Amino acid sequence: MDNSSFRRFFGALLTILGMIVVLFACVAFLSDNNPILGMRITKWESLFPFFVGLVFLLSGINLIRQL
Questions:
Q1: Where, by residue number, does the polypeptide cross the bilayer (predicted)?
Q2: Which residue segment(s) compose the domain that 48 sits in?
Q3: pTM
Q4: Which of 15, 19, 40, 47 would you label with 65, given CA atoms 20 to 30 Å apart?
């Protein structure tokens, strides 16, 4: 696997993972303290997965774009 296809694959993986984590954080924010996937997450606790997912999403897009 050459370098550009590895970067494209890793960028796509990070982008998909970032979208999943951001969507999870949005659902947790809107859940009104109901359990999500067996976890109780408050509105303030949902900010951390949102920012982590945003970092994954932006770094994945940046890896794909710089080819």
A1: 12-31, 46-64
A2: 3-65
A3: 0.86
A4: 47
